[in-house]
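Entry:
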Amino acid sequence: MLILFITFIPGLMSGIGIYWFGVNEVEESLKEMHTDQILERAKNIDDQFDYLEKSLSHWAYDPRFNSSLLNLNYVIEFQETRDIVQTLLVLQGSHPLIDHVELFVDSTEPVLFNPHYNVLEENDYNFYYDILKSNKNINWNRLNDLPDESSIEDPQPLVLIHSIPGNSNDPFGSIVVTLDRKKIADLIKTLTPYNEGATFLLNEENNLLVFENSTEQSQFVRDLRQEIVERANSETEGSFVYHYHDVAYSVSYGTMGRVNAEWTYVSAAPMSSITTPIVTISKVIISISLFGLVLALILSWLASRTIYSPVAKLVKVLVNDSKWTHQDDEFKVIENQFNELLTESQSLEQRLSTQLPQLKNNFLLQLIQGYLYHYKEDELKERMVNYGWELDDHQFIVMDIQVLGLNENKKSSMKQDESLLAFALTNISEELSEEYFEQYSVIHFYDLSAVLLIVYPENEDMRTKFDEFSEQAIHVLNRVLKRQITITISKPSDSIKRIPYLFEDVKKGKRYRNFDKENQVIDLQTLETNDSLDQIHYPFEIEKEILQAIRMGQVNESEKLIHDFIKEMKVKGTKEINIKPCIIQLFGSIQHEILHSGIHPYDIFQGKNMYEEVNRIGHPEQMVQWLTYDVISPFIKALEGKVNIEMKQLVEEVCSYIKSRYMEDISLESCAEEVNTNPYTLSKAFKKVIGVNFIDYVTKLRIEKAKELLLNTNMKINDIAEEVGYRHSYFNRIFKKHIGIPPSQYRKQRSNDAI
């Protein structure tokens, strides 16, 4: 540990010193060296520009470029024209930086040598005329006078212009020397000692004159130029370190005098390529030193601990401190605690294995009911594998076994203990499944049904086994339970997430069972549901008679009429999906009658969900018994407790009287006198028992009789009105009020419908 401390603490200090002080020293040295080199190279560039200026001035004073050029016929005197071209070519080759030389003469017919003779168009003339009329005999410029940041990716060439003759205050032409853009950029690039960085020239307005044409450096040049402009306000030359995008640049700038102007040169050279190794080495030294110090601390901590410490800690975890002293044998204590934990673990494992079937069944129950829809396929597969399923290359199918019908003692069967039937159904299903399937699970529902989830290899054809199993299950369950059996088989699926949909499919598929068959197997893979739907026929007239019998408290008559109701429905179709909605509608009408009587259905049905119960009934006889003994009988008993029996008999007698005398002029008073009571008592009793008042009942009876006569006879409207106890004009008005159309139109419409 001492060696580690002695070795790495100096290393850490050295690394920090190198990082903080070494980098600064290197940057200062590089900046000074860069400044010295730039001064020398800037002097070389200044000399070359100075040479160009002197050379151009020499040629501008050449006698060849005197005023005789204004009157010279360049076409006729072609020899003079050729000499001028030769002179311009010599000037063009006099310096490597020159790209080409042009001569502009503002004569009567302006001409331009570039270097050959050309007559100027008006647009080109304006450009050269503007150059000529500048007040400077010699000056530097661009072909276009560009602002500082426009077209920085495509700069215009630099030009040197001298008016001719050179000593004239009123020049008539100019020599335009265009410098080679690439060579000028290469010359300016020599200002930086490295291949990287940036160099450029600024004119007296701080606009960019010359710079290296590099798109990726455009933004850097703009930002650095702005920095130079701000510094040039206080000092015209100097050097500094400029940081841009985590890179340090050594920047040097100064001025060089040109004719009629003063230029600023700028050179930026990156220093990070030199300082980066120093920074990296310092960081490596610091990292190694810190690692050594941390290692020393860890070793010191380990050395401060004794071998006994982990043992003592383990014992304190396993036992209570109050029961253990240091004199005890720690290893013996650990052994005892380990044995106790092992015994407890085995006990928990045994209890878990006992509860595993129930856990498995609960999982499947949640799965088929759609409570695990948010799980992914892989997560569900992992859970099923943990419960012992083998799922690779397997398919799933759901089979529903539903117990229906009544045994021989029909009325008492509704009172049997259904839990016993459900228990027997589950056990028989499990025993039969074990004979036919390798992987299966039976889920019990409390509606006298059991659902089988069957898993089988996807390359195995199981249809024969499903048929054999269904036949055997029906045979055994018929013999043991004395009930009808409906088995519904889903389509196969290879997805666990599809299992809830298979379950929903078999629930819907059960509704296609035929009421006329005792036992049925519904295979959804072959079932054509569209062809299985028949037109629903609802016996409205029998429903009215059932409700009337209920109002009169006639239980036996109601039971007989319900039989007729179901029989009438089965004329148009015998499938449950056609019959069940009609039974639910009939129950709804009966419940409406219960509500109309002022009795709460909760009191009659003792809080049971009657719609759920009616959905569970799957046999016509069960429906009759359920409606008769679980719905109508409790209602009539409650109604009899509410309405006086004598009053009901009184109303029944009046109803019979009305039915026999409805064609006569009868009134509430005459009917009250007929049954020896007063009109008020009769009106109140009539409303309670029948549900409508006296006048409405008579009117409804007469209208119904009139409808029968209109449809079934050829009697005239006047005769029918008298037959049901109305005058003709009043009959038309009262019939239209209740039916919506006049009697004649009603007869015509119904006749057309019959056709």
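The first strand starts at residue 98 and ends at 105.
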